[in-house]
Design goal:
- The chain is an alpha/beta fold.
- 43% of the residues lie in helices and 20% in strands.
- The protein contains twelve helices and eleven strands.
- The strands form three sheets. It has a seven-stranded mixed beta sheet, sandwiched between helices. A two-stranded antiparallel sheet has the order 7-8.
- 44% of the residues are buried.
- The structure holds nicotinamide-adenine-dinucleotide.
- Nicotinamide-adenine-dinucleotide (NAD) binds next to helix 2, helix 4, helix 5, strand 8 and helix 6.
Length: 336
């Protein structure tokens, strides 16, 4: 088992760890009722297994529709009302069982219902395992954009079982690989080379990606500076997602195009070495994250100004000087 200890909670990673959910919960929770928030797909796949594992508990399931549309104010309110109708009380435990959508929504519900309940994350997509379940960011979308309402709210525990990824669609799997390539680029050369060499992903690589995130979150929990490195590729990535109404491109695909644009810009400004662009492009093509012809950055410039990561009116951009060497540089739109 790999354990990553954060100041207030542990992340544990092991194949088959879901089978120990019962014991793990008992170490942090003394009541009998559990409230599992999940989506319909994950419910269909794992309800029976999880009910069996948690048979000592009184388990209540709350299902949302799969997909980003569920990270809405409407679903937020409906889910909270449902929890209240089911008799949830202060100190009861919420379990977020699912991908990043479930994790973000359930985490935000946990942060705000009765001014905060304990919750744990059981991420079931690769993206959620390496990214969204780590770092304490929770939230929902509004009609103006993604994640515009939310809170920093840490779970009590994160259980990562790579076995649950066996049921994941290939494109969803690739989505997580995009974030892992990003983590390799900004903070772990061994991970980067592992993915470049197309070797299988195990708990070790999942842990390496998490550690890249954990290391920057530790020094910058509230996203003021270093945590911005995690947004490498995301400035354009978010614009691409938004322009296409979050439908045409998955997050991982959008940030893959975004990372290539950031590498291209870095080369243009004399920051990034040429070789990286070709290597990374080849990886994204291999993992089916991008297609040629690539997207043109000019088509997304107007949306960049809306990105939350911009401070005042300067565009703060993350560049890669080399593998493990990200830098933040303010750029003018005319540089792009
Ligand atoms: N909080 C953060 O720090 C953070 C970081 C990155 C992304 N996010 C958020 O994460 C969300 C995206 O997460 P995602 O990519 O996991 O998407 P998702 O939650 O929509 O899951 C993708 C699909 O996979 C299905 N699925 C989940 N687990 C499965 C399994 N084990 N087997 C088969 N199917 C399964 C889901 O039903 C869904 O259809 C976005 O809303 C994004 O904003 C948050």
């Amino acid at each position: 088992m790999i354990t990553i200890s954060l100041p207030t909670y542990d992340i544990e990673i092991e194949q088959g760890l879901l089978n120990q959910l019962n014991e793990k919960i008992k170490t942090i929770y003394k009541y009998n009722k559990l409230f599992i928030i999940t989506d319909e797909t994950v419910h269909e796949l794992y309800q029976e297994k999880v009910n069996q594992i948690l048979k000592e508990f009184e388990v209540y399931w709350i299902k949302i529709k799969p997909g980003e549309k569920s990270k809405s104010i409407l679903v937020y309110e409906e889910t909270i009302n449902h929890l209240i109708d089911l008799g949830i009380k202060r100190n009861h435990l919420i379990i977020a069982l699912g991908g990043g959508v479930v994790g973000d929504l359930a985490g935000f519900i946990a942060s705000s219902i009765y001014r905060g309940l304990p919750y744990i994350q059981v991420p079931t997509t690769l993206l959620a395992q390496v990214d969204s379940s780590v770092g304490g960011k929770t939230g929902i979308d509004t009609s103006r954009g993604k994640n515009l309402i939310g809170a920093f709210y840490n779970p009590k525990y994160v259980l990562i079982d790579p076995n649950v990824l066996e049921t994941l669609e290939p494109l969803e799997y690739a989505n997580g690989i995009a974030e892992m390539i990003k983590c390799g680029l900004i903070g772990n050369k061994e991970l980067y080379l592992h993915l470049k060499n197309k070797k299988p992903i195990t708990k070790k690589e999942i842990a390496q990606a998490i550690n890249v995130k954990v290391n920057v979150v530790k020094i910058d929990p509230f996203d003021q500076k270093e945590r911005m490195y995690l947004n490498f590729g995301h400035t354009f990535g978010h614009a691409i997602e938004k322009r296409h109404h979050y439908e045409k491109y998955k997050h991982g695909q959008a940030i893959s195009y975004g990372m290539l644009i950031a590498l291209e810009l870095g080369i243009q400004l004399g920051i990034t070495p040429n070789y990286l662009y070709d290597e990374v492009k080849e990886m994204f093509l291999y993992y089916k994250l991008i297609n040629e012809p690539l997207l043109d950055k000019k088509d997304y410039l107007d949306l960049i100004a809306l990105d939350k990561k911009n401070i005042a009116d300067k565009l703060h951009f993350i560049f890669i000087e080399d593998i493990e060497k990200p830098i933040i540089k303010p750029v003018r739109s005319t540089d792009i």
